[in-house]
């Protein structure tokens, strides 16, 4: 088979389109985009009989040969077709891309949308599990490190075999960095904060004008935490540093099977017991990680050689020993870790092994929320084992089999983050209506400390601002010799650049001291982050205090204080 360079392919596609009189795309300057900078969270994970209209009316894609409201449709045969040619893409602009995809011939396939740039290779910008009997929705995006004059967005079967692919309702929408940031801030205002009004009255119910009101946040509603290890035990400085910042924790290795039962029947829970006592004493919620790990390399050595019957007995004992001991203690459990990449248990116990794990875990601790947990779902679209649609399909299969699966865990071990893709993946996962947690965020140590800090801030701002995300955990357990990939501090608890980022964001995402006088109606209003508060009111020689909560809601929260 003849092979072409990516450069040749790009211009071959362009030549074919021009020859057929149907150049698919032109580009307009980002400042002239038609949505005035407002992002559309719309996404679909169900396959549909007809494609929906293009988001943003196609954005900067202009279709010259179709009046169809779903936009231009084409079917081509080949690895690299159909394609969109785009001009004058800008550096640092956030581009969000979407389209509907359908196959001809093959019943289903993983289809990748790729962007080929001037004199450069092609990058993945989105994926979809497409079928021949319905339309599937692809949503992704990209940011460029340099401007390009001519680029091609093309579709191909992930295994690169030729296949007929039909696309519809294509859309490419640019956002400036300021527009993207504006939308993040607006979402935070709507989802992470709430307006509150303090009404102050005297003993007779009369309004008190000019009273001094002071409001202080004492606890945050949004869980933001980090992994910890046994190194925190007995280390008072580390413990204080941790609880001064975080309201959530996860144990790095101490609950994993190879730690709690290194030899058959040799149970060791003394270390996790002590770690649990620490977090409990400081009102820190804690995730359970993990019951099983499908990776053979992370399986206890004594388990690997068991017969299927002995293995089944061992896994049932594992669940009972772990979850009976800690019933009601852990808010979440990652039941079968990284099952999209590995299959140690399912290979030996059958395809229903994971369903059985979830069912037994639910019976053992019905109050815990049970999670899938996976890497490279949110970090990239190049990993064919863990695309967003693959994750959704596995989750739906487990639930259809009877698993009580109520949480989406995204590890978040990032190289250079693709923020528009990250948001698009979250949009698709949000259609399932389940809580989404980032469970193990870090940035690869292949980057220098300052670059890690830049990338971490991008990831955290995007995670915190997305309305479907309900918790964030960093994978930054501290050891004398460092951390897995990224440390917030050195061993002496001096901040590293990523630690400065975390401290700054934690300050930004909490209500500072809100204070002021009551107005002519005896009221003082403020906008506060969700969580617990204490309010103090002083008037003349009298002072009154009260506590209240700001929980999620669109209406203003009203608090009445009598003085």
TrEMBL record:
Enumerate the spans annotated as GH10 domain: 209-505
Q: Which terms under GO biological process does the entry name?
A: polysaccharide catabolic process
Where in the sequence is the signal peptide annotated?
1-27
UniProt GO molecular function: endo-1,4-beta-xylanase activity
Gene3D superfamilies in the record, alphabetically? Galactose-binding domain-like, Glycosidases
> Keyword Oxidoreductase, does the record have it?
no
Keyword Signal assigned to the entry: answer is yes
Q: Which InterPro entries match?
A: GH (IPR017853), GH10 (IPR044846), GH10_AS (IPR031158), GH10_dom (IPR001000)
Please provide an example of a Pfam family that matches this protein in its UniProt record.
Glyco_hydro_10
- Annotated active site: 440 (nucleophile)
| Key words, A-Z | Carbohydrate metabolism, Glycosidase, Hydrolase, Polysaccharide degradation, Signal
The domain of life is: Eukaryota
Q: Would you identify the family this protein belongs to, as annotated? A: Belongs to the glycosyl hydrolase 10 (cellulase F) family.
Protein name according to UniProt: GH10 domain-containing protein
């Amino acid at each position: 088979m003849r092979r072409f360079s990516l450069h040749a392919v790009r211009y071959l596609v362009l030549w074919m389109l021009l020859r057929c009189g149907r150049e698919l795309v032109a580009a307009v300057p980002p400042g002239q985009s038609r949505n005035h900078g407002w992002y559309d969270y719309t996404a679909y994970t169900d396959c549909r009989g007809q494609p929906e209209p293009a988001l943003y009316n196609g954005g900067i894609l202009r279709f010259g040969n179709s009046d169809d409201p779903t936009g231009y449709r084409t079917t081509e045969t080949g690895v690299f077709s159909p394609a969109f040619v785009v001009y004058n893409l800008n550096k640092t602009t956030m581009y969000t891309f979407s389209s509907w995809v359908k196959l001809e011939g093959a019943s289903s396939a993983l289809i990748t949308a790729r962007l080929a740039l001037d004199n450069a290779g092609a990058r993945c910008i989105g994926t979809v599990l497409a079928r021949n009997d319905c339309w599937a929705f692809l949503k992704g995006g990209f940011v460029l490190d340099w401007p390009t004059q001519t680029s091609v967005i093309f579709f191909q079967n992930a295994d690169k075999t030729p296949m007929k692919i039909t696309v519809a309702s294509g859309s490419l929408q640019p956002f400036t960095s300021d527009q993207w940031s504006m939308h993040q801030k607006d979402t935070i205002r709507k989802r992470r904060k709430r307006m509150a009004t303090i009404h102050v009255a005297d003993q007779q119910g009369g309004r008190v004008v000019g009273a001094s009101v002071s409001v202080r946040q004492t606890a945050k509603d949004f869980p933001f935490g980090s992994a910890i290890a046994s190194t925190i035990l007995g280390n008072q400085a580390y413990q204080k540093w941790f609880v001064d910042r975080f309201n959530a924790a996860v144990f790095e290795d101490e609950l994993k099977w190879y730690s709690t039962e290194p030899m058959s029947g040799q149970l060791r829970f003394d270390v996790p017991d002590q770690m649990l006592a620490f977090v409990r004493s400081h009102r820190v919620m804690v995730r359970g990680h993990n019951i099983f790990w499908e990776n053979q390399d992370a399986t206890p050595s004594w388990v690997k050689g068991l017969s299927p019957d002995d293995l089944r007995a061992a896994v049932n004992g594992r669940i009972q020993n772990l979850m009976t001991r800690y019933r009601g203690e852990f808010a979440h459990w990652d039941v079968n870790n990284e099952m999209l990449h590995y299959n140690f248990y399912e290979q030996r116990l059958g395809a229903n092994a994971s369903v059985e794990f979830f069912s037994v875990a639910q019976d053992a601790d019905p109050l815990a929320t049970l999670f899938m947990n996976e890497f490279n779902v949110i970090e990239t679209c190049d990993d064919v084992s863990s695309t967003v649609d693959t994750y959704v399909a596995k989750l739906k299969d487990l639930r259809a089999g009877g698993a009580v699966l109520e949480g989406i865990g995204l590890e978040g071990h990032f190289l250079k983050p693709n923020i528009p893709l990250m948001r698009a993946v979250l949009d698709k996962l949000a259609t399932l209506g389940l809580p989404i947690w980032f469970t193990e965020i870090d940035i690869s140590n292949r980057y220098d400390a300052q670059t890690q800090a830049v990338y971490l801030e991008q990831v955290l701002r995007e995670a915190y601002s997305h309305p479907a995300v309900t918790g964030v955990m960093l994978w930054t357990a501290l050891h004398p010799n460092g951390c897995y990939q990224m440390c917030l501090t050195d061993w002496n608890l001096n901040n590293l650049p990523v630690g400065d980022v975390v401290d700054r964001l934690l300050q930004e995402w909490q209500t500072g001291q809100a204070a002021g006088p009551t107005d002519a109606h005896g009221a003082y209003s403020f906008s506060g982050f969700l969580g617990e508060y204490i309010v103090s009111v002083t008037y003349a020689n009298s002072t009154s205090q009260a506590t209240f909560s700001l929980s999620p809601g669109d209406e203003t929260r009203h608090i009445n204080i009598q003085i």
